[in-house]
């Protein structure tokens, strides 16, 4: 029996399952999905779970049921590329013929002292649940610091403002303006929303140290009641520990999304070294190409000399439940329309994934 093993039930591997299980598969193929949870988590919506504006049930999607799919719930201890074996922490080992590693990322604290110990996270559904309990347990007038004004930090700050209008929210942005790599109109729209809703944006910030209930911005001490870290990501430790070529911690791949020297192992999503910033959209586009390559391999057909360039459509973000912003095909969209677009994309994703 030929074994395809998928590590992680993230966006990339969910797209692979969606494409593979809807079409005829080799009769001798068995697919095994390994994840710590028995469901797919909508990571792009963890900010809403943490802020208390979306229930846990809205953030989960059931894994597909199929006669050729086996789901293993467990923690991965080691990826043994030489032996084509996955070791689980419970002592079990899973052999593979082809492997897709889609284990995602974790917070990058950039060696800031105290950041790992004294900040909360929204990188996993478990961490987001814990952050929700912390934030909702704060008393009126408490101060929440959100370190990092990328998409996650912006969406968390705006949703938290809607769920807890009694809190003081400080959003620390390392750049001179929010979303500095995008048109100024987009930045101004988001900043105006925060000004109107009394979210303090601290530009040109540099968090140098974190202590319990204290943030150090440059040399300034800022007292807070809770801190959420959204200031960067890195591949999970298991991926970082692999003895393969990496670039900035991410695994270098060939054009077929395979690990050079271990061509039976593919990498999808945040841990892959690609010329785009990590995103759910990027993982899904990459997954489409991996499925194409797998089918050619299984059919013993030659691989194309070149794979198509991955092109992304842009991004969308929310500002609470009524407003949003988007950058699509080099065009800026703001307001209610942008929020409806994001809600529609989320609905379609859930629909396609059952």
From TrEMBL:
Sequence ranges assigned to domain FAD/NAD(P)-binding in this UniProt record: 3-285
EC class name: oxidoreductase
Signal peptide: none
GO molecular function (one): oxidoreductase activity
UniProt cofactor(s): FAD
Key words of the record: FAD, Flavoprotein, Oxidoreductase
Record has DNA repair as a keyword: no
Family according to the record: Belongs to the NADH dehydrogenase family.
Protein name: NAD(P)/FAD-dependent oxidoreductase
Phylogenetic placement of the source organism: Bacteria, Bacillati, Bacillota, Bacilli, Bacillales
